[in-house]
Specification:
Order of helices and strands: HHHHH
Number of strands: 0
Shape: elongated
Structural class: mainly alpha
Largest sheet: none
Helix content: 40-55%
Length: 122
């Protein structure tokens, strides 16, 4: 079995470090939101990789460096955002007491102020 030369290993480590730097400096993925992004990525991994395949998947990420690649992280983050969209807030709605009643007085003239409205015909 061949081993990777130290030069190739060094170059691969530099490449992965560059990818991490790209992610950390990305407007969408990095900055103060970097930790949140990585939590979302890990959550998607945990959600979609079965427990009995987790070691193999993590080996894949480590050996290939895919887990550090900006586009892999962007993909996983986009999936997380799509699947974790918050539910619409519930609103306690109370209909007005006069619902269903005909408007009267000043309100009526304001609502039916078009010349052809029934209330304005004489």
């Amino acid at each position: 079995m061949r081993t990777i030369s130290s030069r190739a290993a060094s170059r691969f480590a530099e490449t992965r470090a560059g990818w991490v730097k790209q992610v950390k400096s990305d407007e969408e993925l990095g900055g103060s939101g970097f930790e949140t992004t990585m939590i979302a990525v890990a959550k998607m991994r945990d959600e979609f990789v079965p427990a009995d395949r987790m070691k193999a998947f993590n080996d894949f990420l480590r050996v290939t460096g895919a887990g550090d690649h900006p586009e892999f992280i962007r993909l996983m983050n986009n999936v997380a955002r799509r699947l974790d969209e918050p539910a619409a807030p519930s609103v306690a709605y109370q209909p007005p007491a006069n619902i269903g009643q005909r408007p009267s007085g000043a309100k009526r003239s304001a609502l039916y102020d078009h010349p052809t409205s029934n209330g304005n015909r004489r």
